[in-house]
Structures are given as C-alpha cells and as structure tokens.
C-alpha cells in the first residue's frame, strides 16, 4: 500500500508539525489564553490556592453532591436564548450515554450525582444547540453560589 505522503517533504513536515504542535509552542496563546503542555496543564489544574479553598469547604469524607439536568430549552425557557440557533434537549440515547459517563465519574471521584428536573437549577445542564455561524463548540461554566 502506497503512502500518499511518501517522498513529499512538505506533506511529512505538515504531519510532523501537527503532531508536535503543542511541544513546539509551549508558550502558545490561543483565544487570549495560554496553551499548556501536559505537565503545565496538570500543575495549573491542581494549583494550591484552588485546592486549599476547595479543601476548606469539603473537608469531610462525605461525597460532594453535584446536581445535573437534561435541559429542554424549548419546553421550559422559550425565547430566553436569543441568538442561539435551534436549542434542543438531548435524545433519550444521548441522555443514556451522558448518564453512563456521569456514573463513571462518580465511580472514581468522591461525588454523588443527582438528577433534577429541567426546570430546577442544576450545577450541570446538558443540552445542545446549533450555535452561532462562527461557533464550532461551546461550554459554559455555572458560577452560581450553589457550587460554593
């Protein structure tokens, strides 16, 4: 089987650059945010100030309760997502897959995940929308007080 890049120096260099992109650009700034290598990302995620604050609030061995919901924007929040194209809730199959992922998370972390009705406030909301024309992916952190 022939490799379409064989003998094409430019093609191989493109692949090599892609595979080594992060390593070659350890100080890369993307979307006004630093892009870290694996070690720096681990250090950032486990930074002391954050861990100390978390430890003050969650010092016992009881699992932390995290609420989640499968949002149905069309049913419960009509018109509240102006500029968002076609907001939808997850299909039953997608909900099942999300629950399996949450269960895996719960199995390895000291957390308890509790599903709440989609009209209630939840720490994690699952749903999707087609997005803005230039948007490829989106996530939003819920910074409300019930995380504290």
Structure in words:
InterPro entries: MetalloPept_cat_dom_sf. This is Serralysin C. Helix content is 36%, strand content 13%. It folds into two domains: 1-47, no CATH class; 63-147, Collagenase (Catalytic Domain) (3-Layer(aba) Sandwich), CATH 3.40.390. The strands form two sheets. The chain has a three-stranded parallel β-sheet, with helices on one face. Strands 1-2 form a two-stranded antiparallel sheet. It is an alpha/beta fold and 148 residues long. The chain is built from six helices and five strands; from the N terminus they run H-H-E-E-H-H-E-H-H-E-E.
CATH architectural group of the largest domain:
3-Layer(aba) Sandwich
For the record, the CATH class of the largest domain is: Alpha Beta
- Helix percent reads 25-40%
Derived structural class: alpha/beta
> What is the CATH superfamily classification of the largest domain?
Collagenase (Catalytic Domain)
Shape: extended
Rounded to the nearest angstrom, the radius of gyration is 21 Å
* Distance linking N and C termini: 58 Å
Poorly predicted spans: none
Helical segment tally?
Answer: 6
Strand order of the largest sheet: 4-3-5
What's the number of extended β-strand segments? 5
Query: How much of the polypeptide forms β-strand, as a percent range?
Result: 5-15%
Q: Could you report the average pLDDT, rounded to the nearest whole number?
A: 69
